Amino acid sequence: MKAPIRIGPRVRGDLRGFTLIEIAVVMVIIGILAGGGVSLMRVLTERKARTEALSYLKDTHTNLLVFAERTGRLPYADSDGDGLENSGVVSGTLPYRTLVTAPTDAYKRPLRYALNPNLGTNRASACSALRTGLTGTPQVVDADGAAATFPIAAILASAGPMDADGDGNVFDDLAAGTHQGDNTDGTPNYLRHPPVAGFDDLVVYVGGNELYSCLCEYLSLAVNNHSGSTVYVYDANQGSDLGSQATGSSSVYSVLSGSRLVLCSGSGGCATPVASNPPTPIALAGRGVTITLP
What we know:
Blueprint: H1 20-71, E1 91-93, H2 96-99, E2 112-115, H3 123-132, E3 139-142, E4 150-151, E5 154-158, E6 173-174, E7 181-182, E8 190-192, E9 202-206, H4 208-215, E10 218-225, E11 231-235, E12 240-245, E13 250-256, E14 260-264, E15 282-283, E16 289-293
């Protein structure tokens, strides 16, 4: 008898799928990996938003200095939400349209902004206040230094990602620890501090010396009065006399660069200046000058 013909190869061994236990283990591993991925994405997203918010604060800080250098003052705050400064308002939100900058930070909120009341009028008033030393508000405590408050020219505050202290205001109040402050309204002071429990605000500020260096340049004005009468040194920018110069005397005045000066025979300015060399009116810029009255 002939053997039967075989069609195809012989299949050896058992063919079987995964058990329920094996599938369950795989699903648990996938779940762990997925959960870790979500957590990692959250951390990366939060880090990205914080970096962008800090970049926006730094850019706005630069814009404030550029504005001050160009106009001779800091802009007032925005009190009605239209992005434009409101004259005389020293605490509110950032006047982003006045500064021509983005309206909100990475968290889609406007910045809180406050300035020293003496720095919003004109260059002469601002430089006078900066030169004698700032007083009053805003005050800040900086966690990078001592716990004592000190006056600043202006402050910019971002509320960060959330209302970390849970008081219903996105700006936080830190009332414990060495460095304390309240960024809701700056009373008694604002606070720059790393993120901690109950505080996640981001803050930058403009210091008095920093603003002075870009806003104010003082030059020396020497006046030698050889005439037969007293002469008055009038600052047309400020609308006031720098002082009077008796006959036969000499004095040196510190004058803000860009000031327009006139020598007059009486106080309070004049239509016709006293004859001098060089003649006035004269604007000081770039270097000092000596004026002699024959």
